[in-house]
Task: structure prediction
Amino acid sequence: MLDNKKVMVIGSGPIVIGQAAEFDYSGTQACQTLREAGCEVILMNSNPATIMTDPSTADQVYIEAMTLEKATEIIERERPTHLLATVGGQTALNLSLTLDEAGILEQYGVSLLGTSLETIRDGEDRERFKQRMIELHQPLPDSQTIETIEELENFMEDHGVPLVIRPAFTLGGTGGGIATTKEEARTLAMNGLQASPISQCLVEVSIAGYKEVEYEVMRDAYDTTIIVCNMENIDPVGVHTGDSVVFAPIQSISDRMNQLLRTEARRIVSALGVIGGCNIQFAIHPTEHRYFVIEVNPRVSRSSALASKATGYPIAKLATRLALGERLDDCINPVTKETMASFEPALDYITAKVPCFPFDLFSGCDRALGTQMKATGESMAMGKTLEEALQKAWRGAGVEQAPLYPSWMREATSEQLWKEITTPTDLRLLAMLALLDRQATTQDELAAQTSIQPLFLELFARLLTIRDSLDLTKPVSIQQAKRHGFTDQQIADLTGVAAEDVHELRIAHDITPAFQMIDTCAAEFVSTTPYYYGSWSGRTEVLPSNQQKVAVIGAGPIRIGQGIEFDYCSVHAVRALQRAGYETIMINNNPETVSTDFEVADRLYVEPLTIEDVVHVLEAEQCQDVLVQFGGQTAISLAADLEARGYQLLGTTSDTIDAMEDRHRFYDFLDQLDIKHIPGEEVMTVDALKKTVMALGYPLIVRPSYVIGGKGMHILNDDAMLEALLPSLTFPVLLDAYIAGQELEVDCISDGTTSYVPIIMEQIEAAGVHSGDSTMVLPPKSASAQLQDEIERISKKIGQHLLYRGAFNIQFVVTGQQIYVLEINPRASRTLPIVAKVTGQPLLEWAVKAAIGQKIELPSERIELSFHAVKTPVFSTLKLTHVDPKTGPIMRSTGETLQWTENGHAKERFVFDETTKRHMTKPAHTIAGHGTEAWGQATPLGDFPVFDECVAFFSFIPEEKGLREQALAKGVHVITEQHLAEYYETVRDCASIPVKPLSEWMIKQKEWMKG
Result:
C-alpha cells in the first residue's frame, strides 16, 4: 500500500466521440479509492462538466488543458510521487507516455502506479503489440506496421484488398477504417498516419464478417486473474464495438470456444504484465473453431464501464486497489460485502447495450458504420430474455418502435431497407426486422448477407411471432409479450386499444413487473446492495421503506446537446437530498456515468426513461416525489405524464414547464412582465408560415418546440432558403426574427420568492451560434456593468413570477441598448456545473433545498470575480463524415474545456486537447477564406491552400464546406464566426497563465472579496 503518498491522476479531458462519460466514472472511482487508502490525490482534467473535477473528488483539482506543458507545470508544482494513467482513457495514456518520453517522470522521480508504461506501449504501439502476440503464439491477421504510403503499396502488392487500417495511439478508431479498394486504402492510410501521435498505422488483411467478442479481465501484481465479464457484438468485425448492439454475457459461441478464449485472455494479460483492468477483443471465425486477437486495451475502457454496470463489479475501484499493490483475494467485493474480488461474477439475466448516434442533428451526414466510432453514448438494459433486454435498451436509446421498428419503414421499398443493411447503418437491425416482417427475405439470406449470427436473427423472428400471436383475451399471451420486452403502448398499437386499457387489463390479471437485484453472483450469496433492474419474470426483491424519499430522474445516454453535465447535476441532487435526510432513488439507463454507480444513491434502478418504465419503479418504491429538473430535456419531457398520474414534481409543475416551452404562452408571460422578447409566432400551416414571414421579414429562425441541441433549427435569409426547407418541416413550428446581437446567459437559483444570479456569462460569438458551441467568458469581458445589472434585474423579476423553485437558465440577446429574452429553460442547464466550479458556490445544494421547500439564505448580489474563466466547446466533427464544422443554431460540440485567465484573454482557448494535436503557436500561419479577409491578419485563400502549414482557417461561406473539412482533418482550427476570429487574433500573442488548482482560484477570490 502507498499510505501518505501523493498520486497524480490524469483524466480524459473533454467528451469526444470514442471517449465519453465512462472515464468520469472510472476516474472518480479511482480518486475516491486512492483517498480511502490514505493517498493525497492530485487530479488533472480539463473537463469542467464532470463529477471528477468537483473539488470534493481530489485533494487538489487542476482544470487545465491536457498538454505536456500543463502536465509538467503541475508535476513541478505538486511533486507527486506516483502517476495513475489507466483511468483516463486514451488521453491519459498518450499524455503519460509523452511525459515519459520528454524525461519529465524521471526528472521529478514520478513512478507509475499499476500497469507499466512498457506494458501500455505493448498494447498501444501496433508493431510492438504484433511482436508480443507472435511471441505468445497468438493468431493475428496478416499485417504490417507502416509509417509511409510506400510501405502500404508494398503490402497491397502481396495481399491486395480489403484491408483494415488501424492508427496507433488513437481513440474510437480515429483515422482508421476498412478499405475495399486500393485508393480507399491510400486515403485511409494518409488520414491514419496524420491521426496517430507517432505517425504509425497497422495495416491488416480484413477479417470483416468474423464474430467479435470482448473479455474484461482483472489481474493483480501476483498474477491472480479473473474474467469479470464477456460481451458479444451483434455486428460482426467491421463495425466498431462502440457502434454495435452488445449483449453480456456472450450468447452465440460454444462453451469450448469460450473456455479457450478465457484461457488465452488470462495468458495474454499475464504475459503483458497488466495490473488492474484490461479489455481484450477477439475475432472468431464464422464456421471454424479458430480465432484472431484484434487488440488489447491495457487500461479501463468504455467496455469496462459497461461490464461494471452489467455485473455490479466495480472494475475501476478494484483496479485502483490492485495498482496500490493489493491482491484480488484480499479485496472484498463491495456489492456482496462477503465474497472476495477474486470471485468471478455470475449473471442470471442478460444485459443489452444500444448505441446512440447524433445523425438526427445533421442532414447529409454519412450514417455508414465502420471501424471508426460514431456513437456519442449508449443505453443499457437488463432482462431475463434477449428480446426483453434488447427492446428495453432500444427504447432507452430513444429508438422509434412503432411498434417494432420506425413507422417510415412500413412504407419504404425493400431496396431502401437493403441499403441500411448491406452498408451497415444505425438502422440496420430495424431494417432486418422490417424485411422479415414483410417476408421480403429469410433468416438464411440475412445471415449470408450480413454475417450476423443466426441466433440474433431468430430473436427478430420471435419478436414478430409474439406480435402476431398477441391476444388480449388470454393473460398468458399478454404475459409472454411483456416478458419479451413489449410495452403497454406497443401492445395498444398492435391491438387497437388505449395503453390505459392494456394497463388495467394487466392489473386485473396480476401481470406486474418484478424488480431484482444485481448482485454479481446470480443470487448464490446474499447481497445488500440496492441495485435493481426490472423484468416480467420471477418475484420482486424490492421492499419499499417508510422513509421520506425522492426519485431523481437522470438524463439517459450522452447526446449532442445533453451531455455529462446533467449527470453532474443528478449526482449532486442525490447528495444534497441525502444530506437533507431523504432516501434517494436514482433512475437512469446510462452505463457510463457516476449516477449509475450503485454507491451513489440509496437505491439505483437501471431502467429506460419512458413514462411506463419510470412509473413501474415509482410504484415499486411507493415514491410520490420526483425531481426532474436535473436530468435535462429527457427528464422534463416526462413531467406532464408523471403529474397526470398523481406524482408530485418538486420545485415546479408541468404547467410551468409548458409555459416556457410553448411559444405563445412564453411570450404572453414576458409581455405580462413588460419584458422584451424577440418578435415571433408559432404557426400551424404553410399558409400561416408564409404570412408570418411577410410580417416579420428576413432573417428568421425556424425551429420546433421541446428540442435538444437546437435540433431542427435553421436561419433563413430569403425565400429560396424557405422554399428549400418547406418539404422537411413538421408543424407546428416557431418563427422568430433573427437578431445578430450579443448573447448573454445566466443560471439562476430561486426559492419561489427570491432569485439569485451568481454570475453572467458572455458569448464571444454572435447570437445565432448555439450556446453549447459558443466560447463563454465568465464574468463578461465586454458587457458594461450597467448592462449586467439590468440583466440581473430582469432575471430576478422572471424568477419572482415564474412559480418555480430550484435551478433555471435564461438566455438573452442584446442589440444596441435593447435587451431581449431569447429563452427560459425551467431546469438545470448545460452551464450550471461550470458556474458552480467558477464561483465556488454550492449552487446545486441550494437548488435542491429550494425544490424540496427548505429555507435557504441566497446571496442578494451576484458574485464579482477577480479573474475570468473561459468555456471552450470541443467538437467531434472529424468522426462524422460530411458534417460541416461551421457553427450555427444546431449544436455540434460534444464537450467542453475550461481555461483560467486574469483578463478574459485565454490563449489556451485554442489548444483543443484531443480534437487537434496542433498548438496555437506552431505553426503560426493563418488562411482567410472568401469574405473573411477583414477578420484578422490571415493570408487570403489561394487556389491550392496548404493546410499542413496552417494553424487556423477563417471560413464561413457554404461553398467552402469541403475546404473546412479538409482543414479540420489536418488539425487546423476552423473558425467560422467573425467575433471568434477577432478573439483569436487578440489572444494569439498573449502569455499562457501558470497553472493553479481550483482551490487557489477560490482562495484568490475570497481574498479579493475581503480586500
Notes: The longest helix spans residues 255-272. The two ends are 44 Å apart (CA to CA). The chain is about 35% helix and 20% strand.
